[in-house]
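Re: the 90-residue chain
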Amino acid sequence: MSSTSQKHRDFVAEPMGEKAVMALAGIGEVLGKRLEEKGFDKAYVVLGQFLVLKKDEELFRDWLKDTCGANSKQQGDCYGCLKEWCDAFL
């Protein structure tokens, strides 16, 4: 990933804590609401799914598309954000 958004940089700069799902790069208000409706209300809940899928990019992107309708860019942004966070904090 050659460039990242400010949202991405802010997210990976510190522990996740109780951040809302919309704090994740690639997840805005519309996708955030869809995720919340399916029980993924916090960033750490999405992280849990990311880890259950063994940090596999293809599986996670497919899950995000199927769960909230994320497009390819949104999937990539969210995956990259969680991967970088895991590399820094796990």
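Residues 8 and 81 are 6 Å apart (CA to CA).
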